[in-house]
Amino acid sequence: MRMTIPGLDSFRNRDLGRADGIGVVDARGPKFLLQIIIQGRGGQGAQTAGNLLAMAFFAAGRQVQAFSSYGGARRGTPVSSFLRVADRPIRVRCDIEKADAILCFDASLLAGQLLAAAHADTLIVVNSSRAPDYFARTLSGYRVIPVDGISISRRHGLARIVNSSLLGAFARAIEAPSLDVLTRTLIEEAPAMHAENVAACEEGYRYVDDQLRSVPLERTAS
Q1: 23 belongs to a structural domain
Q2: Which of 222, 147, 171, 215 is CA-nearest to residue 3?
Q3: Per the structure, how many domains does the chain have?
């Protein structure tokens, strides 16, 4: 099945809609909720990426809810950041059990609990140097876009700090927030190396844009 990459307003969650009025239609029109999981290992910057993405969505005029979960205090243990983004106030407060989009900082985490949070239409962006066809074979039934975030970051003097490159890639994949809003957020919030972070973000965005234009993303039947 050929995949269409939707923008923010294409994501709906009818289960939450029944409980919270999101994802259904009322007299004012449809309500939408985008649920995102960002997962990495301690020290990779998954929580920072979640905070930056939340600030970018807020700067774009969206309602945002963000929270984090830690697997432990040690470097290298799994760390997750969760975001809900909507056009109207978000009243639901439960954990995100099914995500509309996932940003994974470490391909070894694409298993178990994280994949259990993906439904048939979940879009997964993963930090990996492997080609798309590798994930089509090993994770059939999932929609995966690999991004070589480390190589991009190194080209811009950021070593293994992949936040900016992956955020640019993720924004292109889900078509939100805009690259302009995201780069302005990086300039305002990054403690240093503003030009380098913006350049990595822009290359990550182009990396996914080129990938989607040259190779239509497909979901292989499981």
Answers
A1: no
A2: 215
A3: 1
pLDDT, tens digit, 9 for 90 and up, residues 96-128: 999 999 999 999 999 999 999 999 899 999 999
Give the pLDDT confidence score for residue 214 in this predicted structure. 78
Domain that holds residue 53: 35-214
Q: How far is it, in rounded angstroms, from Cα 119 to Cα 214?
A: 25
Instruction: For residue 192, give the CATH number of its domain.
Output: 3.40.920.10
Residue 222 lies in a domain: no
Q: What is the pLDDT of residues 44-69, one digit of tens each?
A: 989 999 999 999 999 999 999 999 98
Check if the beta carbon of residue 174 is closer than 8 Å to that of residue 8: yes
Tell me the residue type at 212. L
Question: Which pTM does this prediction carry?
Answer: 0.84
Quote the radius of gyration of the chain (alpha carbons, Å): 16
Distance CA 59, CA 83 (A): 15
